[in-house]
Amino acid sequence: MEISRPWRVARDFLAVFVTGIFMFPMFWWALTSVKPMYAIFDKDKIVWFDFTPTIVNYAVTILGLSRSQLAIEQGFGMGVTGDGGYDSRQTILDSAIVSVGSTALTMAVAVFAAYALSRMAFKGRLSYLNWVLGQRFMPPIAILIPLVTIYKAAGLRDTDNVYMGYVGLSLIYALMNLPIALLLMKSFFDDIPKDVDEAAMIDGATRWQTFRKIVLPMAKGGVAASAVLCFIFAWTEFLLSLFLTTEIRTVPVKIQTFVTSTGSEWGFISALGTAAIVPSFIFILLVQRHLVRGLTLGSLKE
Amino acid sequence: MASVTLKNIVKKYGDVEVVHGVDLTIDDGKFVVLLGPSGCGKSTLLRMIAGLESVTGGDVEIAGSRVNDVHPKDRNIAMVFQNYALYAHMTVKDNMSFSLILARRPQSEIDEKVGWAAKILNLESYLKRFPRELSGGQRQRVAMGRAIVRDPAVFLFDEPLSNLDARLRVQMRTEIKDLHERLKTTTVYVTHDQIEAMTMADTIVILRDGIIEQVGTPLDVYDFPANLFVAEFIGSPSMNLIKGVVEGGHVVTKGGVKLPLPKKHKAKSGQKVVYGIRPEHLDVGKGFAVKILVTEPTGPEIHVYSEFGENEICAILRERRDLKRGSMLELAPRLDKAHLFDAASGKVI
Ligand SMILES: Nc1ncnc2c1ncn2[C@@H]1O[C@H](COP(=O)(O)OP(=O)(O)OP(=O)(O)O)[C@@H](O)[C@H]1O
Ligand SMILES: [Mg+2]
């Protein structure tokens, strides 16, 4: 359909405007992260661009520069607390371990389960899918207290053994991610015509070979897209991480500790936050094409 | 190479029976076409031969041994699917070598076989491409290549040409037939296109609603249809079928026009029958008068649609003449080519 020029301009303008509204917090976040203290806290005016950019917030949070050292250099010496508390290198590592671990676990289960749901006929196949999805209806906070108790009893808390802490957190993230990963993977597998499986079988492939050499490679874009969604969920999750771990500090929990009794360290908050967006952003770019397809849950044919 | 035998094959989906006891013997090296309208069970039958669908009753035999419970991969068959079912993530070469790699054939043999197939199918310059970079006809040929490299006992085709445009279809038809002439591999070919069936088959099997209506060579089923369904299904324009009653050496039709009985028949006086005559077996001459409705010149011939009594009839005339709508014409059926069917059972008499 041909759209008249004024309408087209209006439509483009609206699109840019709406995108702008959504992008603005991220922009402000990134801008804040390179502002020096005086530009963040100016009680008289909002500072846009008239400041000298600094990387000091990044230096403290992700490069491990000492906070008190910084304060001395900047010349306000005493009264600075939380010397090592802003070094987030271990935090980023913790987040990476838990996110990658839980994603790997989720995908390892989801890929096989989704294949079975897509290709094998067994009793209760459809109700099984509904049941799995039903797991996501319950808000995590509803099960938080029992979960903490269970984790304590099962030795999955990092206070007993830090390695078990990683396992525990990865496990609960995997459980949270499983339904959506399963559903996504099923829709990606459903999109591959069954004839292809049959052709492979006639070519002499066993079921495992058909899965491993034909179906899985054909769905690899879908695997990547689902994995990225799982990764992002784990990377940004706050509540479960806060309650289930003490030693292990994932990025969202760490950021929350920058809000202290002596003030909120906006520079550090925004620096770590901005840095944390980067991996998700890169992954999203890589799998964007498949994600859009995946989120429509197979309703579109190529 | 091998023969294929179907013994009283029954297929049920749940409680619904879709194939009702099919018996068929396909001799070694033959090209057999399963022909029938949509939903008659052609694909189901083919898939049961392939082992992709379980058999509810009866036996499938390949090369004389029962294969009902043999996995498709162990049946030594190759199949070409309607949508080709190529492996999208593999190159043309890898698509064709897949079965040979699974069978752990030596690399030299794989290269040789794939090279041979690519040559036969004119795919040599496309071996490194992916299926998405090929045209429909090329994809179709890759699917064929995947099948022939294996040297299977039986080829199965499920409407392999239906996704191609008309010109390519004719071309591929010839190529498949040529391939069969060269390889002489037993072939079962499913189609609902009667031209494909007529031109390619050694034997045509005509199916309707899960039952075999007739088995025969293409010319057999054309010249001697066993029943009304086959008579009407084969041929275009289709055979004229005119209802009537046998009375004193004639078939008296609705409206009282008398048609002379065919040379050979076993009809009794008073029997309700259907008189069958192909359009090309009607000549202009002393016979019965018809009123012309529509004429369609095709170039080599003229299709004349006309009516007599309360019946409609189509004739194909080869000589050109001036035929006006509403004018009268006298048509004479060739009595050695006319058929008589029992009106109740539909069987030829
Ligand atoms: N999985 C199934 N479940 C139930 N009924 C089925 C199934 N597959 C096929 N049928 C039925 O079996 C009958 C035969 O189907 P089949 O696919 O063999 O037809 P066909 O002759 O190949 O038709 P077409 O020319 O349209 O491909 C049809 O009536 C169809 O509805
Ligand atoms: Mg079919």
Please trace the helix and strand order of chain B, writing H or E for each element. Answer: EEEHEEEHHHEHEHEEHHEEEEEEEEE
The third-level CATH topology of the domain at 90-250 and 286-299 in chain A is MetI-like fold
Integer-rounded radius of gyration of chain B? 24 Å
Give the N-terminus to C-terminus distance of chain B in angstroms: 39 Å
Count every helix of chain B, treating DSSP H or I runs of 4 or more residues as helices: 8
List the uncertain runs of chain A.
296-302
Mean pLDDT score of chain A: 85
What portion of residues of chain A belong to β-strands? under 5%
CATH architecture of the largest domain in chain B: 3-Layer(aba) Sandwich
> What is the general shape of chain A?
globular
Largest sheet of chain B: 6 strands, mixed
What is the SS-derived class of chain B?
alpha+beta
Output mean pLDDT of chain B.
91
| Number of domains as seen in the coordinates of chain B | 2
Oligomer: heterodimer
Q: Any idea of the CATH topology of the largest domain in chain B? A: Rossmann fold
Q: Give helix and strand order of chain A, one letter per element, not per position.
A: HHHHHHHHHHHHHEEH
Q: How much of the sequence of chain B is in beta strands?
A: 25-35%
Total number of β-strand segments of chain A? 2
